[in-house]
């Protein structure tokens, strides 16, 4: 029996969800059944390209289609409602990062997955980057010793908040859109929890363009075993920057240091009208398959296919318990969101936020 999948949100990143499942469907290992998106024009384009049935209301898709799973790529602040509806309807769920932009929302989604006994996976695709996995393995095997400090940067060209999704950029921030990837990645790599966050944010450029959000947020996150990591995030790099995204990570431990340029993997070009370009060709590469169709590869696709693998495993009689620890789960989504919430609070209130203390107060 092949698993039947529906996607909600077919925009810039939802396209990759559709492409990944479509490729899995071509192997006869899944069915990409339907897409729900509010945007009728975009919906029609995706219907034509992927041959899926389109719905403007995701609730109609849930009611009318016999789906096993739903994959959600709506804007950051709109994941919660769709995830809850899908889980209550008994579907397994993949949610784009961040799981939700509130801790309460993450907890509610996680509780629904638990109650209905369904897989809840978060698309933290940085974990699937081979260079990041290699770094993680070196840390886990003890080669770097105890991690002391580190540095992460992730920066987008200004076109992302101003031209890709100006309609909801103000509901997001460099920490929600970019930082969340690396809060999760570092936490997963060093197998430790954040206990203290201090952050500084700047609002100048985008607010002057009428988009009410941070240009950049720098945060220092301290973890329980002593590691202190700085995360620099921004989405106002000029149009002339060599790639849409600039990103990297460097960690220093008692036994050595290790850094990954997560953007520039060695491929570069300079073409008339384009200027210099470098490529993160580990992420998503569009090439042609042997039969001449579009083929998408890279960790941005693999993380989505991992969800399809997990669905297949469950369909063949595997259990959620057996999958535990093998994919980014709801708890991971909550932990990353806790850091991001603290980052925003720290930037707004100009003080350090102690995550342990908060947890103790809540108890
Ligand atoms: N763009 C990227 O590079 C990127 C990368 C990684 C992850 N993401 C994540 O993917 C998610 C989507 O981002 P995006 O860049 O694709 O945004 P987008 O604005 O391009 O697409 C979002 C789509 O969701 C649709 N939508 C909104 N509310 C809906 C609803 N209730 N029902 C059905 N459809 C609805 C919109 O019509 C739109 O087509 C976000 O959580 C984002 O953080 C984006």
Q: What can you tell me about this protein's structure?
A:
- The chain is of the alpha/beta class.
- It has helices at 14-26, 40-50, 58-64, 79-88, 103-116, 130-140, 159-164, 174-190, 205-208, 299-315, 320-323, 330-349, 355-362, and strands at residues 3-8, 30-36, 53-55, 69-72, 92-96, 120-123, 147-157, 194-202, 216-223, 228-237, 245-253, 256-261, 268-271, 275-278, 285-288, 294-297, 353-354.
- It folds into two domains: 3-126 and 289-326, 3-Layer(aba) Sandwich (Rossmann fold), CATH 3.40.50.720; 128-284 and 338-354, Dihydrodipicolinate Reductase, domain 2 (2-Layer Sandwich), CATH 3.30.360.
- It is 39% helix and 28% strand.
- It has a seven-stranded mixed beta sheet.
- β15 and β16 form a beta hairpin.
- The relative contact order is 0.16.
Measured as a percent range, the helix fraction is: 25-40%
Low-pLDDT segments: none
The CATH topology of the largest domain turns out to be Dihydrodipicolinate Reductase, domain 2
Principal-axes geometry comes out as globular
Largest sheet: 7 strands, mixed
Structural class: alpha/beta
Give the helices and strands as they follow along the chain.
EHEHEHEHEHEHEHHEHEEEEEEEEHHHEH
Overall pLDDT: 96
What is the correct CATH architecture of the largest domain?
Answer: 2-Layer Sandwich
Q: Rg from C-alpha positions?
A: 20 Å
Q: What small molecules accompany the polymer chains?
A: nicotinamide-adenine-dinucleotide
User: Distance N terminus to C terminus?
Assistant: 45 Å
Strand content: 25-35%
The CATH homologous superfamily name of the largest domain equals: Dihydrodipicolinate Reductase, domain 2
The DSSP helix count reads 13
What's the count of strands? Answer: 17
